[in-house]
UniProtKB/TrEMBL annotation:
Highest classification ranks of the organism: Bacteria, Bacillati, Bacillota, Clostridia, Eubacteriales
Membrane-spanning segments: none
Protein name: Sugar ABC transporter substrate-binding protein
PROSITE patterns membership: PROKAR_LIPOPROTEIN
Region (Disordered): 23-54
CDD domains noted in UniProt: PBP2_TMBP_like (cd13585)
Compositionally skewed regions (Polar residues) per UniProt: 23-41
UniProt cross-references to Pfam families, sorted A to Z: SBP_bac_8 (PF13416)
Length: 469
């Protein structure tokens, strides 16, 4: 996900540079001419630095990228300076592989930049060390706030907001459903897990055309699988929540990944391959769920993030993929999880108001509309896009998206009503925790261990990581 967000931010930066040199009319985005120049009217309290009076304050903004990309990012910063002439932003480019190490070194030396981008799983580590500024006032007086589910909180206070929203949903091949004479999954009501398993087995076919429910089914010669439930580790948290469990207590005080409900949720995912024969084996080592499912033409349903609409599904549809989107199946509770790369203000800044002004400007939907939101790569962060029909339609009424009613029910309304924060929004040390959990679960996917054996044997190590030991 970190690589995806980095790639998308670079795309935004390049488009932002292009936007600096163009000025189009603000037409409906369906005709491709949506203005990407940030709006300046209706400014909130954090935008009070707009104007021409007073001295110019210079702030630094860090991001992961190459020096060659710095010119594109700087062009975006210069566009901001045109609107806020009292604030100048200097871009600090740090190679991706050195980013966290470099920031830690700068933090020790008291030389952190004023603001910058971070990966989701590192935000609370910095916050717990007192390195992030309390941004509670950033949206003070605003007409609409970012969704609570994409708000990073430390001791109950916001320390970052995701620059985009992304939720998990179920995507499916309509032609495969039509061939089997099956109704499409619902965009407004989640099917039960048992219904999902039966459906996946019905859509799993061997070389002779027998499905996985047939006594004649040949599991050694499968030509079409019914599903891929992505086992890229962070995405597995949704099934714990769906089954009534949690990786961590809601207040973040304890690691509860050994809860029987959590263990059962992991085993149910593994059993799609090991018992039900309706999902291909995957080691869970790469973030490639869509690439190995619907895009192969051999899988009927796949769980995946909303970003896939823009990164690959729109192109695949142009090439013949007839796909739809629905809500995830539910084990007990109807739930999805969300994520999105954050922009932060570092606590060592001497100019917190100016840094918050830039970050807030940088995350405005209009600044990423044509390149990221209208394409389906990013979802808006403000609540009003999920509650105001006019804004929702502005967002999803375009040819890059699947059917309007499907997407609204399975993504927009789903994100508004059923999304819970992924653990990194309220728990530190999630980078190390998820990396260890990925290793722990390896034998579960092959059937060498049950989920109960793997979690029980490794709980002390997982808990130690959670405790920061």
């Amino acid at each position: 996900m970190k690589k995806i967000i980095a790639l998308l931010l670079c795309l935004l930066m390049v488009v932002g540079m292009v936007a600096c040199a163009t000025n189009t009319d603000n037409n409906d985005q369906t005709d491709g001419s949506q203005d990407t120049t940030p709006a300046t009217e209706n400014s909130d309290s954090s935008d009070d630095t707009n104007g021409n009076d007073g001295d110019v304050v210079t702030i630094t903004y860090s991001y992961w990228g190459t020096p060659d990309e710095a010119a594109s990012v700087q062009a975006v910063a210069d566009k901001f300076h045109e609107e806020y002439p009292n604030i100048k932003v200097e871009v600090m480019a740090i190679p991706n592989e050195e980013y966290v190490t470099k920031l830690n070194t700068m933090a020790t030396a008291g030389e952190l930049p004023d603001c910058g981008i971070m990966n989701e799983s590192g935000v609370l580590d910095f916050a717990s060390d007192g390195l992030l500024y309390d941004i509670s006032a950033m949206y003070e007086g605003a007409d609409s706030m970012p969704l609570d589910s994409i708000t990073f909180k430390s001791e109950g206070k916001p320390v970052a907001y995701s620059a985009a929203n992304e939720v998990l949903s179920l995507y499916y091949n309509k032609d495969m459903f039509d061939a089997a004479d099956l109704d499409y999954p619902s965009a407004t009501e989640a099917m039960t897990w048992d219904e999902f398993v039966t459906l996946a087995k019905t859509l799993t076919l061997d070389a002779n055309g027998n499905n996985a429910l047939s006594p004649d089914f040949d599991k050694e010669n499968i030509k079409q699988y019914g599903c891929v439930v992505d086992n890229w580790t962070w995405q597995l948290e949704v099934w714990a929540l769906s089954n009534g469990g949690r990786w961590f207590t809601e207040d973040g005080s304890a690691c509860t990944i050994n809860d029987p409900k959590v263990i059962e949720s992991i085993q149910k995912v593994a059993d799609l391959t090991l018992v039900e024969n309706c999902m291909p084996y995957n080691a869970g080592l790469e973030d490639n769920g869509m690439q190995r499912s619907l895009l192969t033409g051999t899988v009927a349903m796949a769980t995946a993030g909303a970003w896939n609409v823009g990164t690959c599904l729109a192109t695949a549809r142009d090439e013949g993929l007839n796909y739809g989107v629905a809500r995830l199946p539910k084990m007990v509770n109807e739930v999805t999880i969300c994520t999105g790369g954050p922009q932060v203000v570092f606590s060592q800044t001497k100019h917190p108001e100016e840094a918050m002004t830039f970050i807030k400007w940088y995350m405005k939907e209009e600044n990423s509309w044509d390149s990221l939101i209208a394409t389906g790569i990013w979802m808006p962060i403000l609540e009003e896009y999920y509650t105001d029909e006019t804004l929702t339609n502005k967002w999803i009424d375009n040819p890059n998206f699947p059917d309007h009613d499907e997407y609204k029910g399975a993504v927009v309304d789903y994100a508004r009503d059923c999304a819970e924060s992924t653990c990194w929004y309220y728990i530190p040390h999630t980078t190390e925790f998820i990396e260890l959990l990925r290793t722990v679960l390896g034998p579960v996917w092959t059937g060498e261990q049950t989920a109960e054996q793997a979690i029980t044997e490794n709980y002390d190590a997982l808990n130690a990581v959670f405790m920061g030991e």
